[in-house]
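Work through what follows:
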Amino acid sequence: MSDRHNGYQTHRTAPWLVARLTRQRLGFFQPDILITQLERSDEIAAVALGHGVQVVLMVQDAQFDWWPWPAPHPHIRLISNSEFIASRVRDQMGIESTVIYPVIRWESYKVSSRVPEFITFVNPVPEKGVELALEIAALVPNRRFLLVESWPVGEKARRRLRDGLKQLPNVTFAGWTHDMRTVYSRTALLIVPSQWEEAFGRVALEAQVSGIPVVARDIGGLGEVLRDSGILLPQNAAADAWVQTIERLLSDQSFYAACSTAASINASRPEFNPLHQVDRFLAIATERISK
């Protein structure tokens, strides 16, 4: 199957066919470099190396035990999506990796104006902290919450979530969207109560592009993304601590304005600039190819 949802031609297939089709594509295209990530990257890298093609392996999360990793090889270069992940690669694999942050295209997220009606939570699944988000919402029935699907929510999980929301009339569920500006244009603040170690936490930066304050759990790479521009709560912070922070933000206009300004400034950091990221990536790829 092929599509252009990413803005360029993309071919999709069953996971167990990827290595075989990679072998075919390498023979057809004869590329200088292959980029791979996540599951089956060990198989894909092995195919590329067998064809004499150098590999850039993108390390995108901290779940190192979810799939096998390629063995260290002089023609494999690793790129981590945060300093947090680079430190994990160093500790667990004994390999140095280059850090290049995820590309956030401002035009895809920045809104010209906002009607700040919702406290927004993206990706209502257990790993991202949906239970905590719902507990927070239950404590402030006067505040409106928006839950936005990101990872596909299966039908069974969707029914369970909708059943739970029947007890929370202040919470709205929105399905997956191509255009997150429709979400951020209605967002007063973003909460990121992740329960697992976020490699980067791009949703926080997406919101900050439009000056939206972010309240996040201090876990994984979220602190690296936000620095002092957002509000980081301890990992063991209970729902009432989240509520106190949210209420302060939404009740204190000067505090909200300061957090909004800090968010915009943080999103403008040079290392988040897409041109900077592309230049770094091309420099790495060129370096590997020239050797």
